[in-house]
Amino acid sequence: MATVELTDDTFEQTIKDNDIVLVDFWASWCGPCRQFAPVFEASSEDNPEVVHGKIDTEAQQRIAGAAGVTAIPTLMAFREGVLVFNQAGALPGPQLKQVVDAVKDLDMDEVRAQIAAQQDGQPQS
């Protein structure tokens, strides 16, 4: 699956409707963003079951602001609607593959239990 451009109108629904969504926050003037683009595109071809979305931070400032993006490129990964990875900086292909594999391998019941424990103010086990 090729990368998809996400907008105010499609961002939340894309996160809700898909098991795994990677989001690349970028801008056309950003050199590291341009370097990361082909790596992200290759990952989308290698992992067709994972939605690879791109958000142009210039055109979609509301989403970038709501997501707390302060540097670009920023990569976020959502699994079953839950933000499970958030990191600024361009990743080389092997590191992006590690992120994708780690997100695929997450035990979401455990992740939800950890989130619930944090919200209850309980220490993580």
From TrEMBL:
Record has Transport as a keyword: yes
Gene3D superfamilies named in the record: Glutaredoxin
Ranges of residues in domain Thioredoxin: 1-105
PROSITE patterns: THIOREDOXIN_1, THIOREDOXIN_2
Record's keyword terms, sorted: Disulfide bond, Electron transport, Redox-active center, Transport
SUPFAM superfamilies in UniProt: Thioredoxin-like
InterPro entries linked: Thioredoxin, Thioredoxin-like_sf, Thioredoxin_CS, Thioredoxin_domain
Coiled-coil ranges per UniProt: none
Keyword hit for GTP-binding: no
Pfam families documented for this protein: Thioredoxin (PF00085)
Domain of life: Bacteria
Family of this protein: Belongs to the thioredoxin family.
Protein name, entry field: Thioredoxin
Lineage: Bacteria, Bacillati, Actinomycetota, Actinomycetes, Micrococcales
